[in-house]
Amino acid sequence: MRSERRTGLVLSAAALGLVILTAVAAPLVFPLDPLRTDLPGRLRPPSAAHLLGQDALGRDVLARLVGGARLSLAVGAAAVGLSLVVGVALGCIAGWYGGWIDEAISRVIDVLLAFPGLLLAITLAAMLGPSARNVVVALVVLGWTAYARLTRAQIRALRRRELTDAALALGASPARIVGRHLLPLALPALLVQATFGLSGAIIAEASLSFLGVGAPPPIPSWGAMLDEGRQFMLVAPHLVLAPGIALAATVLALQLLADGLRDLLDVRQT
């Protein structure tokens, strides 16, 4: 069973690595412009010149698919990274000090969790205006809560251990104890949560772009490609299949990677 889990972890990591490599290196190997239009070639199926066909404006679907991958990964990584920084900082403060500070941070988290996540993200993105930066801001406003709750729980549990009492007796400051002793012990759980969060952020970015409040046209995005191609599903299904399969495969690889990391890093597993 453990060997099967390790195999799944390796395969999912390889699949995710392939997506990242394609997003970074494909423009160097296939120097196609995702914004170049070719109206006479609109809706053409896959061919030797255009491996995944052309869209309604004659743009190369493969070039736009790679551009969408770069956008999704960049937005997802930025959203998760900023959410992690904010959530870990507030979670450490709440978990260490407790009292009214913990109560105030917990109430803010409860208020944000009371709203449907995607609906609140749509509202924030629409208020801020369509752009990749505003999508990141909307996702950070929602995403930090999960990391704050997890960090708070981890710090509260670890604060009761003997190593904390020993460090306090030796005169170590709370910041030093949390940063050098407690937080590293919570990193495995945070890493797993961040991997799950990355897949959620990619889906959220695609959803916002699909609804028209993500990155504005003509910037390539998987969600926008799905929106543009749905009206041509019967005559040009490749417009929907290409971004749909790419999105599903990337999210599946991240989910399997997170599951594998959870099994690998969980010290309770025997």
Describe the structure.
The structure is a single chain. This protein is mostly helical and 270 residues long. It has one domain: MetI-like (MetI-like fold, Orthogonal Bundle). It is built from 9 helices and no strands. Helix 2 (61-97) runs parallel beside helix 5, helix 6 (162-169) crosses helix 7 and helix 7 (174-210) runs parallel beside helix 8. The protein is elongated, with a radius of gyration of 22 Å. 40% of the residues are buried. The mean pLDDT is 86.
The CATH architecture category equals Orthogonal Bundle
SSE order in H/E notation? HHHHHHHHH
How many helices in DSSP terms?
A: 9
What is the average per-residue confidence, as pLDDT, rounded to a whole number?
86
Quick one: overall form?
elongated
- Biggest sheet, open or closed, and with what strands and sense? none
- CATH superfamily heading: MetI-like
- Beta percentage is under 5%
CATH topology: MetI-like fold
Helix content: over 70%
* Unreliable sequence segments: none
CATH C-level name:
Mainly Alpha
The oligomeric status of these chains comes to single chain
CA-to-CA gap between the ends?
11 Å
Give the tags.
single chain; 270 residues
Concise structural overview:
With 270 residues, the chain is mainly alpha-helical.
Write the layout of secondary structure elements.
Blueprint (H helix, E strand, L loop, with lengths): L1 H28 L31 H37 L1 H15 L3 H12 L3 H27 L3 H8 L4 H37 L11 H8 L8 H28 L5
